[in-house]
Amino acid sequence: MTGHVKSTVILTPLGDVTTEEEEQLVTLSNNLKTYLDELKLAGDVTTTYQEMLQILQTTEEQYIRAIRFSLKADKLFLQRSPSEIRINAFNKDLLETWKANMDIQYVLDSYACAIYIVSYISKGQRGMSNLMQRATKEAREGNLGIKQSVRHIGNKFLNHVEIGAEEDVYLVLQMSLRKASRQFVFINTSPIENRTVLLKPLHYIQQLPDCSTDIECMGLIRKYAARPKTLESYCLADFAAWFEISTNKKTTHEEHED
Which of 11-19's residues contact partners 24+ apart within 8 Å by CB, and which partners? Predict the structure, then answer.
């Protein structure tokens, strides 16, 4: 249940109460829910916090206890008056930057947050999970080998991926799904021993002497270290942002020397 408080506070579940108090809190909770539902449908709301308590015929202490009675976990209640019932939770700095609607919530339970994120991003793939289970069962009952089983399940997935109608239209009409005025360049700043490197093409490695260890492609950082003197004043970020490596494909040797 939502509620309005005169100061930002974290409320915890109330716990055990007497039977008599439980009846009172249930009645107050129902009255509060009905009042807030009516408030959402009203026009201009000018009711203050104290006026709301008077309408509900309760004290602030009982009002807070009624909210806590309805909670199953700790919850943050932001300072809000009844007149702000249509205003989502927001951050002033983020709102001025984002300049669009937002509805944020303070995280008190990291596990619940993780569950929410996973369920949200996977809600469109619930039917896909059932399909994968059937495909796995078919592969198992068909006594297929590992290679055939993977191919069977993969084909099922590729041919039955669920997408929205809008995305489907864009794909059919071969329209661009996104446009951007900025690009991103990844700079691997991990310690040298933890960096992943790419090997040069096999036909180039085969031309190297047996004792050669020059089998790694030059990454961005190595290219930055080998930059010409005219670019010595550039930092790594500027080098990555403003320059692209141009390769000469006339010969295999020149292609990897640039």
Answer: 11/64, 11/67, 11/68, 11/71, 11/74, 11/75, 11/76, 11/77, 12/68, 12/71, 12/74, 13/68, 13/69, 13/71, 13/72, 13/73, 13/74, 14/65, 14/68, 14/69, 14/71, 17/69
Q: 22 pLDDT exceeds 70?
A: yes
Cβ neighbours for 12, distance < 8 A, ≥ 6 positions apart: 68, 71, 74
> Is 1 among the domain residues?
no
In a domain, 233, yes or no: yes
Residue 96 located in a structural domain: no
For residue 29, the one-letter residue type is S
Tell how strand 75-77 and strand 9-11 pair up.
Answer: antiparallel
Range of the domain at 50: 9-87
Shared domain for 69 and 134, answered yes or no, is no
Read off the tokens for 163. Answer: 């997408």
Q: Report how many domains make up the chain.
A: 3
Give the chain's mean pLDDT: 80
